[in-house]
């Protein structure tokens, strides 16, 4: 089984593949400016370099979203085990939900947990209800 590539390795692969008219890969300064022009969060060239070299790990989700948008890949590209970007599955969706929840206030996280409890109870009730009772509703 092949080892999973790190965030840094995946980001570096995207940077290396981003060529304009056969020029060398974009500089971190060019990437930073492109993210800002696209309305993304401020990401300094130094921070981008730290992400690409593995000196910084676990970026906040809004940085990951900005990088994915810039390179035209799904956010899940950075979290998948295989090398081909796809839409991901339930495990990747759960990781993204958790990452986004980290950025919420404690009150916001409680509200999300309350919503998850509500959805879980609803789905459990749907599973436990016989098919004939559901069609009568």
From TrEMBL:
Gene3D superfamilies documented for this protein: lambda repressor-like DNA-binding domains
InterPro entries, per the entry: Cro/C1-type_HTH, Lambda_DNA-bd_dom_sf
PROSITE patterns noted in UniProt: HTH_CROC1 (PS50943)
Residue ranges of domain HTH cro/C1-type in the record: 43-78
Official protein name in the record: Helix-turn-helix transcriptional regulator
């Amino acid at each position: 089984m092949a080892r999973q590539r790190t965030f840094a390795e995946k980001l570096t692969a995207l940077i290396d593949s981003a060529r304009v008219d056969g020029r060398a890969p974009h500089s971190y300064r060019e990437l930073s400016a492109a993210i800002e022009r696209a309305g993304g969060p401020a990401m300094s060239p130094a921070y981008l370099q730290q992400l690409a070299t593995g000196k910084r790990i676990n970026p906040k989700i809004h940085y990951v979203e900005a990088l994915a948008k810039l390179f035209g890949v799904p956010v899940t590209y950075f979290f998948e085990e295989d090398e081909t970007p796809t839409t991901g599955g339930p495990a990747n969706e759960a990781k993204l939900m958790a990452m986004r929840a980290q950025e919420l206030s404690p009150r916001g996280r409680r509200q999300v947990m309350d919503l998850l409890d509500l959805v879980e109870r609803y789905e459990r009730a749907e599973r436990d209800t016989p098919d004939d009772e559901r069609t009568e509703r």
